[in-house]
Amino acid sequence: MGLLGKILLTAIVIAIVLLVVRYRAQARLPSTRQPVTVTLPRRNPLPIGWVASAVVVLMLAVASYWLYSSWRDDHDVLSVRVVDAGTGHVAEYRAYRGDIEDREFVTTEGVRVRLAETERLEISTLSGRN
Questions:
Q1: How far apart are the C-alpha atoms of 35 and 26, rounded to whole Å?
Q2: Co-location of 16 and 68 in the same domain
Q3: Spatial separation of the C-alpha atoms in residues 125 and 51, rounded to whole Å
Q4: What backbone phi and psi angles, to 5 degrees, belong to 100?
Q5: Looking at the domain assignment, is residue 130 inside a domain?
Q6: Lesser CB count within 10 Å: N end or C end of the chain?
Q7: DSSP reduced 3-state for 24
Q8: 67, 7 in Cβ contact below 8 A?
């Protein structure tokens, strides 16, 4: 899932929460007929507003951390070696983790490299992070 998809998912979740809050607020509006009031002994009611707000804040925090973590992982600089199996020629590049695909990658300088069928790709970390 790309960055745009993650942002879109977060926006959809926020929109759904806002719609639910708006629906509940409209449901609390007084109706035109007179309601029958029955008073029951009060127990300590759960503060639904606070709980809902806490859930929304928690969801936003988790989504933000998830987006940041994904972005950070995609921007790890890796050492990429392309080895030609026929000649043994080795070419070394640097690329971001998020720019490496199955048979091609984009270097940190912006060069797109596509591998031939006789070439293999070797990847190692530069930063020491796995």
A1: 16
A2: yes
A3: 43
A4: -100, 125
A5: no
A6: C
A7: helix
A8: yes
pLDDT of residue 1: 59
DSSP-derived letter for residue 52 is H
Strand partners, 77: 96
pLDDT digits (tens, 9 = 90+) for 32-76: 666 677 776 666 666 777 888 889 999 999 999 999 999 998 888
**Same domain (yes/no): 11, 69:** yes
Helix, strand or coil, per DSSP, at residue 30: coil
| One-letter amino acid for residue 38 of the chain | V
- Total domains present in the chain: 2
In this prediction, residue 64 carries a pLDDT of: 92
Cβ contact 98:73 at 8 Å: yes
Cα dihedral 102, 107, 110, 112 in deg (nearest 10): -40
Core vs surface per residue 32-48: b (16+ CB within 10 A) or e: eeeeeeeeeeeeeeeee
Residue 104: predicted pLDDT: 92
In a domain, 22, yes or no: yes
